[in-house]
Amino acid sequence: MRGADQEVARTASRRSGPRRWLRAARWLIAAGLHGRANATTLTIAEDLAARMDYTTGHVRYCLDEMVVRLGISRASIKRHIGYLRELGALAWVQHGTRANIRRLLGLRGYAATATVYAAVIPPVYDHAMGHRIVGTGYTARIVIDHRGRTAIPAQSRKPVDNPPVDNPAEPGCEPPSLTWLRKEGKVEVEGGCNYTPREGASQPKTRIPHQSSSINGRRRTAGDVEKAMKTVRLVRALVNWTQSVPLRRLEFVLRPWTDRGWDAFRVADELTGMCSGMRWKPKNPAAFIRARIAQETAHEEALAQAVAWEDSTAARNLRSLAALSGPVPEVETEPERTDEDRERARLYGWQEWEEVAAHLAEDPDDAIDLYGEAICKFAISQQARLERQGAWA
Question: 23, 164, 256, 359: least buried by Cβ within 10 Å?
Fold first, then answer.
């Protein structure tokens, strides 16, 4: 696929999620459909799949980060990304431009608009796998026939009671079809179904616990919520595993951080650090973030209590000691040495070498810091000379 066929609007490939897309990419490379695609192409595909959004299959290019992360040159990554587009495994959703994305988000500063790719699977893969496809292009879907499956035992299948219909030619209903359309990224239902569930039916109905409606002792306003929404909108763009959470829900979960005045980049750093060094991504990002914030808050409170207890204990012990032994005398501390002190000491050190030698015998490191190595060596040589003269006499 070349030219405009590599765009989402014109591609002949269908959309996909990261797991099935990576499986298809491995097959396309191993089949030798592109003469230059190799193991490096597969490595880049695995990096893209690890960062893809599970709902849309979209992923940001992030060329500079891929160079650092994979240790592959920029030119090589560009070439192999082109091979994936030519195989029909990637399609452009958005071309990178110099337009300021931060201005569109209502933020200060400058950041260029990123290139965004979509995970797609070409028709050649579906033809080789024997898939039946409904529709064409990016919005095409797979047809799955469950009639040949043996995953559900026959004795465990329950009959379906179908109400009669007004059809004189066909008294009664046929059994419901076991053939259904499946969208990429949806949970597969065992046994099949010919009805499409509502979009939110598979989403867990978890309740967010109550949070305070005040910020620093004042009541939260609509302006505070709008400012936090702008911050969270940029956080979703920076941390890909949070993109499955609705914006309003994510803003509510991140309020303990946004109420402190944290910007989007600091929040993104904290979220990235939660999953650093791990290959897995949280299945329920909102619950995961809420649990980690609660854990860190409890740790901070326990640490503050421990510090307060230690301070109070130390103060109590000092008061007890003062009551038993009287006032504690103040210890005079020597002022910190300055460069002026060193310059003055080195100016007179050549004549007062005996004092330098005595200082060396008492504290060599401090003497070298004060007088320097040259004067210290001179003082040692002069002292050795006097000792030799005394021995000869």
Answer: 164
Total Cβ atoms within 10 A of residue 220: 15
- Whether residue 200 has pLDDT greater than 50: no
Domain coordinates of the chain in residue numbers? 3-129, 220-323, 339-392
CATH no. for 3-129: 1.10.10
CB contact at 8 A, 213 and 219:
yes
Question: Helices marked H in 87-180 — which ranges?
Answer: 101-104, 123-129
d(CA 142, CA 262) in angstroms, rounded, equals: 44
pTM: 0.40
The pLDDT of residue 355 is: 86
Q: Which residues contact 282 (CB under 8 A, 6 or more apart)?
A: 241, 275, 288
Own/partner contacts of 346-351, CB < 8 Å, gap of 24 or more, are 346/370, 346/371, 346/372, 346/375, 349/375, 349/379, 350/375, 350/378
